[in-house]
Amino acid sequence: MTYILANAMFPVLASLAQGGVVQILSLMDNRGAPHGQVVDDNLAVCWGVDIAGYAGNTINLVNAASDDKVPPEKVASTIAGVAAVIANLPAGRYRLGLTRPSTGAGGPPMPSKDVFLLYNPPQFPMYAHLP
Amino acid sequence: MIVNPEARTAIEQAISLNAKANIEAQFEDGVDHLHLEVWDGRPQR
């Protein structure tokens, strides 16, 4: 399989890079959407990116289940990183998957520690497996 | 609606200052990253 970036990704990554160091967690893998699409037997086009940090701000809300709240410095850094990404996007249409608090990737929801959007199982497919 | 007041202010300010970037949807995603989809990168149908 050959993976290529969609044309619209280039100005986005270039614009972000002009505003600071972009820590890319992942582009596209064989899972396909929402990071991209397999368009034929040997070609996949990537239109999504997971950003782990931007302009010196780590984007991460991982915390211990025993913590009363996500450590404030993590919250502040994540907010600053997400805001900086938005501020440095070029003209275009975007969808944002905002960071959620949990003990780790695929971990349980922690509604009391939400920073961005409220825990909302019917609205977010990632919670479909939960009661 | 963004829960945290500081987050809400920061995100709303960033969006308002960069009106050319049209944020068409926001949803919850992973714990250790911001997921960014470039809608214009999708195949046009």
In words, what does this structure look like?
With 131 residues, chain A is α+β, with helices and mostly antiparallel strands. Chain A has one domain (2-127). Chain A has helices at residues 9-19, 72-87; strands spanning 2-5, 22-26, 36-40, 43-46, 48-54, 57-58, 92-98. In chain A, a hairpin with a 2-residue loop joins strand 3 (36-40) and strand 4. The radius of gyration of chain A is 16 Å and the shape is globular. The relative contact order of chain A is 0.16. The model of chain A has no long low-confidence stretch (mean pLDDT 89). By secondary structure, chain B is an alpha+beta fold. Chain B has one domain. Chain B has one helix and two strands. The model of chain B has no long low-confidence stretch (mean pLDDT 90). Chains A and B meet through strand 3, strand 5, helix 2 and strand 7 of A and helix 1, strand 1 and strand 2 of B.
